[in-house]
Amino acid sequence: SLLQMLNSNVTSSAQVERFIQTRMAERVIRTSVFNPENYAAQVKAGDAELQKYYDAHKSNYAVAPGVKYEYIMVSPKDLADKQTVSAEEVQAALKTVAANQKPTRHIAHIMIAAPKSADAATRQKAREQAEKIAQEAKASPDKFAELAQDTGSAQNGGDLGALTQGSLPAKPLDDAAFKLAQGAVSDVVETDFGYHIVRVLEIQGNDAAAQEARVRQELQLKKAQQAYEKIREEIAEFTLNTPDLKAAAQKFGLTVQQQNEWLTQANAGSLHVPKAVADALFSEDVMTKKHISEGISADGATWFVRVTDTRPAGTETLATARDRIRADFVRAESIRLARAAAQQAQTDLQARKAVTLAWTPEQNVLPMQMQAALVPADYKAFMAAVPNNGQPAYAVVERGGMVELVEVLKNNPLGGGQIIQAVRMQLAQLRGETVTQAYLQYLQTTIPTKQGA
Asked: Where are the extended beta strands (E) located within 214-321?
């Protein structure tokens, strides 16, 4: 077929071997660090130098549009404590809960496995073992977990957690568990799975005071949600007619809060401002016309915001950003000087001159490790440093804020039939895709086409 013809690329063994050794093979390297800070004292940072640097890097000192603002915020949680709940309402809710709530118990369990399909002797032996464990557990209930672990019936001392009535896997087991007093241990219970002993660790829902407090809180939150829906509509109407957040806060018992740090669309996340709020602040109505926003729903609350100050887009001047510009310039020049020193050392080493450097111990690295740490130009220089005839090769790179002279001592051979075959197929596929794309582009430029159904 046409695709088979286009993809029938032949990649020679020499090409495959070169690709493996130059692109994939592990390198043995050592490095010498040229710390830019050691060159900072050599940098002259006068007015002329700073002006030249500033003119060349003005985009680094661009100022995004920003706003400062004030806001009021209301949420159901804020309103919950203000809601009154009568004793009659609580009692009515408790009756509803009692009618709908299934008993819940924290249960532990030991099982001696003996399925119904087992022979009589096996089941009798299992029952005898269960009877013995039940006697020990009743005599020392606190040792129940230890007995469960000894039988291997369950992890965590046989603890099954909190279960509602009817949720145990067999009715006899469920009946036994929900008849026991708290802390009590059952007799042996027989099911189709074997023989069981159950202990009730806790009967939940018996704390009337805790249940009443929970019901009261739920009723307050329900009323708070209703009050929330009403108050946010009232605030929206009030601020529409009276564009004054302080007056709105006073009327509805809220607090006006200030954001005095410049907010931009880029730093909203770091300032923990919800996206919907930031979008509203930079809308024409709020930012330009200085209107109070409509209610903004974000993070379970409603915000009403008003811009108090705006900052247009622009560029910081040399005067206002001088200290930062000077620091940036000194850093850039220090790196340049460090690289120049490293490149001079590289030139001297390649010329077989004696150079005194502090080298790190030898280490083995993979190309992908260096690729993750270097900018593309430095990675290209590193990959081009291939030892030849037993002589090391060198590259100057910047990594982790430091300038490094990398000495590549050797490439560790990487081979094997599977690797060679995999690389050969990959190279053939890449070449095939390139040829196919080129062929399709050729067809598109030479054959008239039109879009149809």
From this structure: 257-263, 296-298, 301-311, 314-315
